[in-house]
């Protein structure tokens, strides 16, 4: 028989999946906005980002109620505090997507964006975000580790794009303004990957009770 | 007569001030590392960043104990949940400082760094971090608003540096690699300012019960 805690936990999982899907939509839209000028993309992403923020508040309330009403201990307490932490990573992912879409006006008219693998970065980071939330909902330690490993793919893509853009800048009739904004966009995607790794590390913590801090943020740079 | 809650809250304040001061040290060291090559700066900042992470765990435990043992409601509950949120902003500030120091090798040998106001950005962001924690400890709504307003100074400095670097790149015998890394450093400082604003917004929430989401992240870009 399911306890009240289990019911509230299921509600938490459902809302986390929704929050994750909002992030994925925001990343996808932001990425496409870098190549194709679309009406109101900036506003669409900003709207999604507000939805992400609202969802964070909602999930926070669920977690607080769980903490105060259910007095969880041990594993259950770790699950709730992990959820409280990972939603702030998801919220930042929404911010980063909005930051990327803000760069659109300067990038979309440049030929450079299509030359670099910005979409590969988007695809890779969306995959990381989806899997990291999956790992939490399914208590899948192996999947969490996969997410952490795949951060290297995103970091490698960033470094590759960075080198390509430096060549662009050094080349004839270069467009440093566009190149720099594309680099910023790539950096935001790399950050999204870092946040997905943070989520995966919170999953590890909720399952194992051990949190391997955020050192990878440095190690990979 | 002081209650057990007040005593634990005071402990929370003390640890938050320590965490803030660790962030300030990390920012200062990271900023200086961009202009003067020093032995082990990278490791010093990385060590400070680990201390920040450890302090976050410690404060998290204090907050969880407060929530579970004291069952706070209304204002008291907001104060604890605000603390739980703002420490993840402080933790990110530690990451950003480490990210800045990681850029040192590429920047320190370039003449460009000294030409831009990286140190003004460092000074401004350190000031924001200090004030935002002060505002929390002293329940100072006015000070929190000051922090939020001063984010414009940091954003303006970033845009100014950005334009200067674009000119550098376009100029003769340019060094795009160094220019791009300095731009990244400036971006990290701008992010630190954003996180200080987040802290200030959590202070507003803990006092007023209203949280004006993170829209400024977009509005300012």
TrEMBL record, chains A, B:
Regions annotated as coiled coil: 38-65
UniProt KW Mitochondrion keyword: no
Superkingdom as given in the UniProt entry: Bacteria
Domain PhoU: 17-103, 118-203
Location of the protein in the cell: Cytoplasm
InterPro entries assigned: PhoU, PhoU-like_sf, PhoU_dom
Record keywords, A-Z: Coiled coil, Cytoplasm, Phosphate transport, Transport
A Pfam family that the UniProt record links to this protein: PhoU
Task of the protein: Plays a role in the regulation of phosphate uptake.
Family, per entry: Belongs to the PhoU family.
Quaternary structure note: Homodimer.
Protein name listed in UniProt: Phosphate-specific transport system accessory protein PhoU
């Amino acid at each position: 028989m399911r306890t009240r805690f289990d019911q509230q936990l299921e509600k938490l999982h459902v809302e986390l999946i929704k929050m994750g899907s909002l992030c994925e939509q925001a990343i996808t839209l932001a990425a496409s906005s870098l190549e194709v000028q679309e009406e109101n993309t900036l506003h669409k992403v900003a709207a999604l980002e507000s939805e992400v923020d609202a969802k964070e508040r909602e999930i926070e309330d669920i977690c607080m109620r769980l903490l105060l009403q259910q007095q969880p201990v041990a594993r259950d307490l770790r699950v709730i505090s992990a959820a409280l932490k990972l939603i702030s990573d998801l919220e930042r992912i929404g911010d980063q997507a909005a930051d990327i879409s803000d760069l659109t006006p300067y990038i979309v008219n440049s030929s450079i964006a299509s030359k670099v693998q910005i979409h590969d970065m988007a695809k890779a980071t969306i995959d990381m975000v989806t899997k990291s939330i999956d790992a939490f909902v399914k208590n899948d330690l192996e999947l969490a580790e996969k997410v952490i490993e795949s951060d290297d793919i995103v970091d490698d893509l960033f470094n590759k794009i960075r080198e390509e853009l430096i060549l662009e800048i050094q080349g004839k009739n270069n467009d440093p303004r566009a190149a720099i904004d594309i680099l910023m966009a790539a950096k935001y995607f790399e950050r999204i990957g870092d946040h997905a790794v943070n989520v995966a590390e919170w999953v590890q913590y909720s399952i194992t009770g051990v949190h391997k801090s955020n050192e990878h943020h440095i190690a990979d740079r």
